[in-house]
Amino acid sequence: MAISIRLSRGGSKKRPYYRIVVADARSPRDGKFIEKLGTYNPLLAKDDEKRIILDADRAKHWLSVGAQPTDRVARFLDVAGIRERAARTNPNKGKPGEKAVERAEEREKKLADAEEAKAAAAAAAAEAAAAPAPAAEATDDAVNEGESASAPAEG
Fold it and tell me: 3-80 adopts what CATH topology?
């Protein structure tokens, strides 16, 4: 028989209250249980001593017999110092999904294109600033020549 240490819900709607129980893994969540080990009241403040009440001796006994705690109860047992809980890591949990990755790549591409266009515009502006000086002299010369050609000679 598989035995688990888990939470059994009580309380009214939107006012949860849990019993920490030892039960057959096949029995329903709020159904038949073997022994009550304590209580958990999530409505109390996290630093309140009555939030989690647990019979440590009985919990140790059931763990030695082979009862498997659920994740939440394993946290409680770790806080109480009864059983060490290995840190669970899920490296994929923090990764963005496919669509988010596509949007990020698109955004980076647009940003790179904008930077490239800005650099090209700055280069063109620098080139234009350097090039118009000789061109302006050429136009000034052409204008001066045009004036001398069109202007009557005084003399």
Answer: S16 Ribosomal Protein; Chain: A; (3.30.1320)
